[in-house]
Amino acid sequence: MHAAIHSLIRNGELYDGTGSAPFRGDLRIANGMITEIGPRLASKGEPVIDADERIVAPGLIDLHVHVFSGVGLYSIEPFEAGLRTGVTTMLDTGTAGALTYPNFERFVIRQAAEEIHALLNISMIGCIQGHPDFPPYMGDLNDGRHADVPSAVACIRQYPERIVGTKVRLTSGLANGEEKNERAGFEGVLGAAEETERPCMVHHIASRIPIETVLRSLRAGDTYTHLYHPREDHGFDQRGAPLDAMWEARERGVLFDVGHGVGAFAWRVAEPACQQFGFWPDSISTDLHRFNLHGPVYDMPTTMSKFLYLGMPLEKVIRASTSVPATAMRLQERLGTLRTGYQADVVLLKREKGNFPLLDVEGQIRHATERLIPTMVCKRGIWSQCAGTP
Q1: Percent with pLDDT over 70 in the chain
Q2: Right CATH for 7-57+341-351+369-385 from 3.65.10.10, 3.30.420.270, 2.30.40.10, 3.40.50.150
Q3: N or C: where does the chain have the smaller number of CB atoms within 10 Å of the terminal CB?
Q4: What is the full DSSP assignment across 232-271?
Q5: Residue-wise pLDDT tens digits, 323-334
């Protein structure tokens, strides 16, 4: 890692994160902030980063990770999902609940080089168990009493800086097969979100609660994740077309997130949804955890490359990986776009040509002709090298 707080990025292809067309130019960083953007900026003696043949974009923001390392089955170390892959900011989605969050903030969030925010699991115990290969198979809502709204609200009010909202996992197997437990979690997450005036994220896969019920209850700014999962209760009909409830929720301002994971991105769902019916994701995220880090997810740029393959324009892919997640986390006033006065979180990406296999959660492969490779990353003005290809 290089401790250069002042630097000049020269001659890059700038994608500002808004979804606008790119432009060639320079970007100056001073005191950890973006201070100037324009063509052919004059050097002030600071270190120069040559970005020729590189994409210059806001630092990537992964809206769905599990990085409460050392606790439970799922979590990885923040660095495994972070700067080495071009990700400068990440959102841990419900690994911690009210009983465990204080230690998450103290021992993981505050120690990481990356900026970590959290969605508090409505379950007091959080997302620490619930993998079918690791008996006993018990999840967040194995007991409906774990969905305790007063505890969640008190925790959010005690740690308001890093907890940006709440999360629930609605899967029957994670609720002891009982709909009442899922209902307790769903009603609880909505109640806590209302009481704290913060957004919530809902995981809904193989649930006893109908998807229409879930979508009609979500508010503007809330997030439905695992958008292209292959289970029967996804949001698409037999032709691959989005259900009416999906369009209606999007119209109301509900955000749709990828949340790739080990079981939530299938080519057979994503291809018709995107290519035939235009239901693209609002945000691209990995759901990185122990069971998908070494495939099929790997990292954020690999996940972004899957949407390039599907035909999403690069400026929209970058927007879905920067400014949209920043807005979902209510951090859009300082993160997610290349703009003067914003935090100097920047990534340099290479658009590599070739033949690259891209794997989904069902073992299906698509061969892409290009992929995104992170080469350098800057967090608050401090540069470091990325790890490159997985």
Answers
A1: 98
A2: 2.30.40.10
A3: N
A4: TTSSB-TTSPBPHHHHHHHHHT-EEB---TTTSB-HHHHH
A5: 999 999 999 999
